[in-house]
Amino acid sequence: MTDFTSILPIETWLVVLEFLAVPLPRHNVEGIYQGDLIILRSSPGIRAMATMSRFFCQLADPFRFREVHFAVHPYKDPIEKLHRIKKLLDLLDRRPEVKLWIRILSIGREIGIQGRKQDGFDVEYIAVERRIHEVISELRGLSELRCMHMLFTPTLFSAILQLPQLDDLELKYFQVIQGPTDPTPDWSAVRRDGSSLRRLTVKDFESYTPFECVTVAEALVHLLRQETLAELNYLPPRSLVLLLGSVSLVSIISDRISDYVFKGLRKLNIVLNPTDAEVQSFVHFGTRCPNLVSLTIRWSLVGSRYLIGDQLRHRCLEEHPFPALQEFDGQLALASIFVQGRPVHSVNDRDMPIRSNDESGPIVISNIAALRPSVPLRVFGITTAVWDETYIETIAQHHTELEELVYVHWAREQVVRPGLDREIGGRTPKARKTAATHPET
Known about the structure:
Strand content: 15-25%
Number of helices: 15
Structural class: alpha/beta
Order of helices and strands: HHHEHEHEEHEEHEHHEHEHEHEHEHEHE
Radius of gyration: 25 Å
Helix content: 25-40%
Number of strands: 14
């Protein structure tokens, strides 16, 4: 048997393995539920090294167990995947050191879709989920946790927040279950200064009864008050359903922590309801984000920005939210509201226009000219319903320091002609990158 340590010391082999363990493309929660039976996810180089010999297999183990997927799709071989999950849980019981190697974990199941479940799935899944809950608090090296359709107890929720390395938490369709005989959780007893949570993504949460709603709201409040939180993403489904719900993340912030200042928050990506109350709460929230530098806004209903644009503009002029903003991503019609007088160097509008008559001609030109940040605009992305070269002329006239310009139009009959990029570059001579495209070209 070859003694590989005579070729290179173990420390050097570990450096080689670290090089092979290249970061994998980030999987969103939904992408994990495609019938994939894989539990451990690692780079091709690590998988190849693990098959070379027992020596390399043992050496590669900490890298092979870095990313673990306990997520289950109920209509795509779920029993088989549950069996694989149980085998890995058995391994964790036999080899506790493996728990320290796990850096990324996805858990939960897809529900509410068409198909036929395998017999016995629900019973087996509940049993497996309980075992997963028991082991989570022991994953002291965990940095990313992604959950979908999870039922949390307050105790489990608190334990997750005590994980010393947890940097990124993603929650979709989660509930915090507290029965009528369960003790009321004391969220204040959970230390916030011991948390390392920097990135929080909330895609939806369930609140079927007022009692449960209070528990969910308190759990979210505790997450939002983490002193290390630097990025917040609130991305519920963009549909009419939101308007029918009684609770949103913005309303929870407004009602329960109206005086809290989010000093550490640097990046916000949010979907808003087009209601007066939501706009008022959002603007007030923005006044308590003194260091936020990146803002992305979408609306829960396509085209709903037309319903509340004037109110948003009026309240922003009065309260001046997000004073340190540097990057804005949202509809051009609303960009000037958040750009005016702030050190914004990047504006990007990627939303498809719905009403072409509202997104063409003088209105677009006026919106371009209204972008008046306190520093020169360096990056500009614009999306319109029709192609109009006067937009480029207006951009070049009002934003002379541009370094990057991307113009996307949706008019299929207007094909971007060859050489247009060079023409645009000629009108914005300082831009290092220019592009004019149709989304399907």
